Amino acid sequence: MLRLGKKLGPILWQFPPRLRFDPVLFSSFIEMLPKDTDEAAHLARRHDDRVNGRDWLRTEEKRPLRHAFEIRNESFVNPDFIELLRKHKIGLVCADTVEWPLLMDVTADFVYCRLHGSEELYVSGYDDEALKVWAERIDDWAHGREPTKANRVLKPLKQPQRGRDVYVYFDNDVKVRAPADAQRLNECLGVTPQSGARMKHLRRHRREIPKSRPQHRPA
After folding, report:
1. What is the CATH number of the domain that holds 28?
2. 214 contacts: CB under 8 Å, gap ≥ 6
């Protein structure tokens, strides 16, 4: 992880469907998470001998770390959970699937989406109308707004907000739909990926000229 340097994005934590929201458990877990690269390096030094010679414990500079939680149990549809994430600036993964809760509460200065296929997990693709809806949401998030078509636990944050980084991953790759869907979403957003280069994620701030450039790719 540390070897990624400046390319390191949010760290994704996925919780199994059987795990229910426990405020005490999750508060304790969050407190143990490294907040920056220095803390991560310190934690990594506690590894056992199975990774000797394959570890990377150096950091070029101290940088804050971002964490994102992907939940898969209805018990997390809870105001206390959303408030906990906002308190610690942890992103709530917006997971589009029929099997898990689809929540779009903004809880950090970035938004992390995983599009698994809204009809069949990991399989179904997205038609033009669905991609248009997601493009509108992404554009709103990127410019500090709150989408109108959004499932939330709490009321939208007060506006205006600073622009946010937006990460979008297509995980509907069983039938190789992810690359095509990602390309079409690019087109909806008016984004042209640089040839041979990984698309840079969007950074939006007030007074900047609006130009959506969110990062999205197949997971």
Report:
1. 3.20.20
2. 138, 142, 165, 166, 167, 168, 189, 191, 201, 202
